[in-house]
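Let's sit down with a protein and look at its sequence and fold side by side. Which protein we use is up to you, so please pick one and set it down. Label the sequence line and the structure token line clearly, so we can match residues to local backbone shapes. Go ahead whenever you are ready, and we will take it from there:

***
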Amino acid sequence: MRVESMEHDMRDFSSFFQECERAPRLNELAGFFGATAAGRSGNPIKQPHVDRRLLGDDSLLDRFILLHERRRGPFDQHYHASIPYRLEEECRLGHAILRYCEGLSGPLKLYSLGTAEGTMARTISELAEGRVESLSCSPNVENYRSFMAYGDPPHATFFHGPFHHLRKNLLETRPELTRFASGFDIIFEDTTFQMYSPNRLDQIEFVSQHLKNDGLFFFVEKFKNPDIAEYQRRESQKDYGFKARFFGPIDIIEKKAAVLTVMNRNEVTLADMSDAIKRHFQHCFVTWNSGNFCTLVASNSLSNVERFISGLTKPAIPTEYVYETLPLLLFSDEGPRVGDLGT
């Protein structure tokens, strides 16, 4: 059961904030993220493009893909070339969020937590034309500059700072943020927590205080596997079956040494993640899988989860990268539904 907002307000997060300030993302990995976001390093040999053969025929999806491609920045290029079919998944999710907002009486409030230049959230807001108000964040000024390079959009906002700096008092007092003070309908965490610590309990508790009680919380993360050999097999598949199309062998080895060994210490298992989410939400499903990566959606409203999943196109990824039957129920107070998990 999700902790009520009053308990959130009473919680002292000071030790958690100190933990975040010491995190790799803001310290030993800061140089990597800054240089990659500026395009000084980490550039793929060729730019990744959406494989349209893997996505259904849909005019809204076509519009999303075209605008998303025009809005991408340097870090997007690196990121989408690093995780098998993550680019297709981002477009699939953006399309589904646009469909989901059609059923709301007012503008949907979206918080994209740590998605570099905020390309997905910005693209959604531009296409929604007032039906989605989005907020993105990053501690890198380079990402903020990439966001602003395409102009200041009326319905998309960028907070320059790490996620733990975005606190309730800022949402209530900064003029550009007050539209979000009443809470978000969707929060989207994109491989951010794993760059800070394995402390998913506090990370989820802190961020979920910004979510409406019937809102959706998405997590895109890389997960540990209790079978180390299986984890490494999937990593090799990612590196040599996908990343090798975009990066040379030396680049792959150097990134593993400089970034992934640090990040891996902050990964958790899917079971551990499920236990942490269960402290705050009543329902959770896995909606996408690529090797060691998964997308999860959690909520206190099963009907909202079902409505969102019903708007998802099929996962756009070759079956050899998929190790779960989707959508996969992690837990639910009401038992499995979502079309008997046959979506």
Notes: The beta strands are 108-113, 132-138, 156-160, 184-190, 211-222, 283-290, 293-299, 328-332. The chain has one domain: 5-341.
